[in-house]
Each structure stands twice: as C-alpha cells, then as structure tokens.
Amino acid sequence: MIVWSGNTDNTGGRYNPVTDGWTATNTAGAPSGRGNHTAVWTGSEMIVWGGVDAFGNPLDTGGKYNPTTDTWTLTSTTSAPDARTFHTAIWTGSEMIVWGGWDPDTGTIFSTGARYNPMTDTWTPTSNINVPDARSSHKAVWTDSEMIVWGGSDENFVPLNTGGRYNPNTDNWMSTSTTNAPDARTGHTEVWTGTEMVIWGGSTESNVINSGGRYDPGTNSWTATTVANAPAPRLFHTAVWTGSEMIAWGGTDNTNYFNTGGRYCAQSGSTPTPTPTPSVTPTPSSTPTPTATATASPPPTATPRATPRPRPTPHSRPTPP
After folding, report:
1. To 10 degrees, the CA torsion angle through 143, 145, 151, 157?
2. Separation of alpha carbons 197 and 79, rounded Å
3. Vertex 108 angle, CA 187 and 163, to 5°
4. Distance of alpha carbon 26 from alpha carbon 12, whole angstroms
5. pLDDT per position as a tens digit, 262-298
6. Rounded to the nearest 5 degrees, what angle is found at the Cα of 201, between the Cα atoms of 144 and 112?
C-alpha cells in the first residue's frame, strides 16, 4: 500500500503487510505537496494528479511513482485537463481517465476530462457530446470497458442522481437511467462487482442516509439495496469489493465518527441477501471538523469535512507569506 501527500508535504510511505513495516517514498523529483488529489495504480506505478496546494490553488500537475526503483517522473501538462480538485480518476488497464471536479479559484464546475497514457506521457480530451451535467465530489468506477460516473453536486451545491457511462474506445457517453435511481447524494461510495455498480450511503440536501442502489449497465436499470441490517447512515466512509461482498466502514453522520461497518452481498436478481452488520456503537467525535476551506494551514483535505456537502464554499484565498 502506498500513501502519499495530503498536505503541504510531498512525502509518503510504502507499507508492507508481510513485514508490517513502512518505507518512506523518495521526495527527489516528486510532485509538489497537495490535497484532494487522486491516485490510481497501473500495475507497476502509482499516478497522482490534480488537487490543491496549501493555499487552495488548483493544480493540473501530477507524477508517476515506481515503488520498485523508488523514483518519480512528472506527468506532462501539455493538453492536460484544467486544474481542478474533487474530480475522479480511474485506471482502464492502459490509461488513467480524469473527469469532472471543481476550480476553487473561479468556482467553475467541470463536465470535461481527459485520458492520460503513461507510456507516451500524453493527454487526450474526453468527448463533451452527451456528457453528464458538470459536477464535483462524484464517484466513478471502471467496468473493464466503460467508466461510470454518478452522483456528486452541481454548481449550486445541489446533489445529483444522474450519471453517465464513458467508453474510451469509442469516445462516447451514454446517460445512466434515472428510473428507480437512488436519491440524489454526495459523500457516497461506489464499487464495481463485475456486473453491477453498487452505490451506498452519503448525504442528500437535508439528510445523511443509509440507502443505496445497484446499477446494471447491461439493462441500464437500478435495483434498491436493502436497508434491513444496514449500517447507520453515514457519509465520507470507505467501501471495497471483495469478490463476493461490498464492505463499507467508517465515516461520519456529522455528529459522530464511526468505527462500524457492514458487509453487503449483492446477489443477482431483484432481492439481495444482506449480511448483518457488527453491533458496535459509533465513537462520538470530540471535535467535529468544520468544512475544509482554501486556507493556508491546514490544506483543504487534511481531514474529512463533517458537512453534508463535500465541496467547500469558495472564497478569497489568503496571500501567501
């Protein structure tokens, strides 16, 4: 596991679960420190891109880290997407696709993106025909043939229940159905099961929720996830797919930070089989963290923002010292 940056430092570490030990990542040639960036694993390198610096300035830079040689190579900025944060990035097997996000300098919400080829160090813009509405704080998954983006919030901070499927081979977009779609939300999670995208949790305009849905791109249809035995409502949690179950854990309900979670079995068909969640109580947060803003210290992503909307309100940045 590789951890990198998150604040003004461009440091990181590689964790070896076999030895239970950490090794620092090299800082020579590394990108500048940042927060709210994205990272993907290619099979041999970690690619980081975008985010904001310590003063809230959006970035259009990134780097490729090779853990075998402990070396960095900066990504090209030629034809790179506009500087942004709260975007998504996925790995297709040959390219990284960056899409959406927000420019805190101008308040612009993006419906644009680009494909990055690490072998040629080149960027190719994604099509803007039939593209989903501009958004930030959305989520994205890779299906082995398409990128599916869903949810997030628009330029008015309003959560969305829309999305789109992008095929990089044809450079085409197709909208996801809104029939039986989950409630509009942000701060949720998405996983890909091999046949369906499962979204869960997050926050609507008024409530933190523990509902979700399974999206089948083959039929362009939604099936609600059961709420029986579901974990308590939360946002900013994490979720992974094990090969047979989705495991969701952690997060906040804007009052408590959770050390609980649940396992969801997304069986095919209309009736999924839930697995009871552990009966562990949430841990009250002693000092709830306010919404991150573009201030000099700490950077916007030092801690999760305990607000129902994960995009901070833009305001004037302080003058660097």
Report:
1. 140
2. 31
3. 45
4. 8
5. 999 986 544 444 444 444 444 444 433 333 333 333 3
6. 50
